[in-house]
Amino acid sequence: MTTTAGTTDPYTSTRTPDAWRIPRRAGELTGPRVRAALDGLSEPVRTVARYHFGWCDAEGRPTDTGWGKGLRGALVLGGAEALGGTAGAALPAAAAVELIHNFSVLHDDVMDQDLTRRGRPTAWTVFGSAQAVLAGDALLVLAMRELAAAPPPARCAVAVDELCRALLELVTGQGSDLAFEERADVGPEECLAMAAGKTGALFAAACGLGALSADGTAAQVEALRSFGNHLGLAFQLVDDLLGIWGDSPTTGKPVGADLRRRKKSLPVVAALSSGTPAGRRLAELYHDGRPMGTAEVARATALIEKAGGRRWAVREAARQQSLARERLAGAALDARAAQGLRSLVDLVTHRSS
After folding, report:
1. 2-4 vs 120-121, strand pairing mode
2. CA distance 245 to 243
3. Any idea of the CA torsion for 161, 162, 163, 167, to the nearest 10 degrees?
4. How many domains does the chain have?
5. Residue 23: which pLDDT band, with cuts at 50, 70 and 90?
6. Largest Cα–Cα distance of the chain, in whole Å?
7. N or C: which end of the chain has fewer CB atoms below 10 A?
8. First and final CA of the chain: distance in angstroms?
9. Distance of alpha carbon 231 from alpha carbon 238, whole angstroms
10. What percent of the chain has pLDDT over 70?
């Protein structure tokens, strides 16, 4: 499916099915380390965390429903290997990044009042908001412990600083995202800046940590960090597209939920800022205080597309993908060693979940 001539709709393309083997491999390496970290938690926090990862049900009985895509951990391992490092040396950082990501997801679900995640009820709806927040806090602490154990010890402070910087940017981005719900004047550039903090910062840190674990030069660390930032923006754009036009059984989240909450995702902001009649009608619908039902969500979806929000998001995702490739090319990596990272660029922007 295409939206305009020569522009592939990222979430409907199936050009890169083999690329999933890279995060799958990273998950096989990282998953056991994350599981072991969670086993050290006390109850009931341990059960809440394990439930969130899909490793047990609400009663603590073992399950295996899948703990996510593992993309951030794959970026750590891929960044390390692209610079001649080993997956073993980068594994603590990969586990830390996945723990941080899930810390943020647990908190986001509470703040956004999301009801489903990865195809089943979110942790806060099962255990309560307080327990979900505590479990998220525990994952943050475990992430720092993983970095503290990473070899060589002399680089621990640098790695912790890398991750802390990303965390502060993530908090800033999430704060902006929440504030946007109360504002009527959000523009695309401001929304992209929010996404750079909320999503791009952790992608950037993942790549930076991979480079650090392989003793990359300052220039290589910065190049990979920039690569990760642009890749994270592309990921968020596709995520927002999937939130409006995706398939719920595939994404594991109810399509249209963000519209029901009148969330100002990137396609929505582009449509609201378009200056078109459809954009103005969308603004009226968004500023109406009444709850959005199925009919209103369908109308909003149609107005976003008519106002050009979908087309803008697809083009911007492609632009961020191109910028990510440019930054990767500027990192002076061995072409063969960097193949894994290049594959992840296609995976992020051509996916269905």
Report:
1. unpaired
2. 6
3. 90
4. 1
5. confident
6. 59
7. N
8. 16
9. 11
10. 93
Q: What is the pLDDT of residue 131?
A: 98
Q: Output the domain CATH number for residue 266.
A: 1.10.600.10
| Cα–Cα distances in angstroms (integers) from residue 314 to residues 289, 320, 325, in the given order | 30, 10, 17
How does pLDDT run across 218-228, given as a tens digit for each residue? 999 999 999 99
Tokens of 20: 């999933």
Q: Is 120 helix (H, G, I), strand (E, B) or coil?
A: strand
Closest Cα to residue 76, out of 250, 239, 170, 214? Answer: 214
Question: Among 49-53, 65-69, 174-178, which stretch is predicted with the lowest mean pLDDT?
Answer: 65-69
| Closest alpha carbon to 13 in 4, 1, 22, 21 | 1
Predicted TM-score (pTM) of this structure: 0.91
Domain boundaries, position 70: 2-349
Determine the pLDDT at residue 75: 95
Residues whose CB is less than 8 angstroms from the CB of residue 150 and which lie 6 or more positions away in sequence, other chains included: 89, 92, 93, 96, 156, 159, 213
| β-bridge partners, 62 | 56
- Counting runs of H as helices and runs of E as strands, what totals does the chain give? 17, 4
**How confident is the model at residue 67, as a pLDDT?**
83
